[in-house]
Structure formats: C-alpha cells, structure tokens
Design brief:
Layout: E1 6-7, E2 17-18, H1 27-33, H2 41-49, H3 57-72, H4 83-89, E3 93-98, E4 109-112, H5 125-131, E5 137-138, H6 142-147, H7 149-154, H8 162-165, H9 180-188, H10 190-194
Parallel strand pairs: 1-2
Antiparallel strand pairs: 3-4, 3-5
C-alpha cells in the first residue's frame, strides 16, 4: 500500500487506511520521519468525491458523520478555512435522496446540492411523516439531519431545510364536518371570550 493512501490515525475509509493499530511502536518513523498525518478533512473530501451511484446509505451517512465531526471541531474547523472546499463538494452528487419510495439502497439517487432539482432536508419528525413520498427528501433520518444542520448550512443548503422552507397553510383534506355540540358550547361562552 502506498504511503499516500495511509493515515496514522483515523476511521476506516475505502481510499485511506489507518496504520496506527498495525504499527503502534513505529509512530516516530511514520509521523516524524515519513511525515504521515492523522485523518484530515482532505481525506474525507476525497472519499466524498468518489461516491458511486450504488453507494450504500450506511457508508454515505458514515462519511457525513465524520465531516460533521470535523465541522464541529474548534481546531482545524472546516467552517473557516475549508468552507470553499465544502461548497465545492456540495455541487457534486453526494446527497442520498428518496423520491417516491426508498430504492434498494435506501434511497433512489445521489443528488447535487446546488442543482435546481427540488429536494429537501427533513429536520423535524412531523415533517418527515408529512412530506415522505410527497416531495424528494434526503434519506437520512430527521434526527441525523438535525445533527448535520450546521454542516448543511456551511454547504449552502439552508434553503433546502424544510423548517425554513415549509410555510403554514392548513388545508382540509376531505369533507368539512362541523361538530355541533362543540360549536354550541363555544357560542354559549362567546361573551366571556370577547372580554
């Protein structure tokens, strides 16, 4: 395995292997002499750029979890110095979207974050239940999307978050049926309500 495909310490990735567990006694050789680094944001961005159209939802979420962890770190945060790189990857097809029923991978397709195709990020439980199957949604659960909210904002996806996009406009779906006893009760109390 070439040295450029190694990290000293970090999670298991497809394109990079952590070698700390295999050679713990050789840290000086690898880190000081050969200048091998721990996992960095560039490694994660490389992984994201190589997502295939048949990528498993679990692996996509795994990488997003690591991106989110790096995003939330105080030292080496991607918010400041790597925000342009994050915006660049948001233009690639990396977001697993469910259109009208989950596909065999748990989603239908990987979508581009900057494209005009309509898809949204469900960040509340009630939105996930109400909008699933009606509009394309990111395949992550609403809890996961809530956790990634700041990362999505850095990626420039604030307009795709349902809590920001959905407007309140109640619609009666079905026949309008008045509840006569309740209406009568309210009419009796109207003088007290107006005061």
């Amino acid at each position: 395995m070439p040295l450029r495909s190694c990290t000293w310490d970090g999670p298991k990735l497809r394109h990079f292997k952590s070698i700390k567990s295999a050679y713990p006694q050789n840290e000086t050789l690898f880190c000081s002499i050969l200048r091998l680094k721990n996992l960095e944001i560039d490694h994660l961005l490389h992984e994201v750029k190589h997502f295939g159209h048949n990528e498993s939802l679990e692996y996509v979420e795994y990488i997003f979890n690591w991106l989110n962890e790096y995003h939330n770190r105080r030292d080496g945060s991607i918010r400041d110095k790597n925000a342009p790189q994050i915006n660049t990857i948001a233009r690639q097809r990396i977001f697993p979207v469910v259109k009208n029923g989950k596909g065999h991978r748990g989603y239908n397709s990987l979508e581009d974050g900057k494209a005009t195709s309509p898809w949204f990020i469900s960040d509340r439980k009630e939105f996930e239940g109400s909008f699933m199957g009606k509009v394309p949604l990111v395949a992550f659960s609403w809890e996961t999307n809530q956790k990634f909210k700041d990362l999505f904002a850095t990626m420039g996806l604030g307009n795709r978050i349902l809590s920001a996009s959905a407007k309140d406009s109640p619609v009666i779906d079905g026949f309008r049926v008045h509840h006569k006893p309740y209406t009568k009760l309210l009419r009796q109390k109207v003088d007290f309500m107006i005061r």
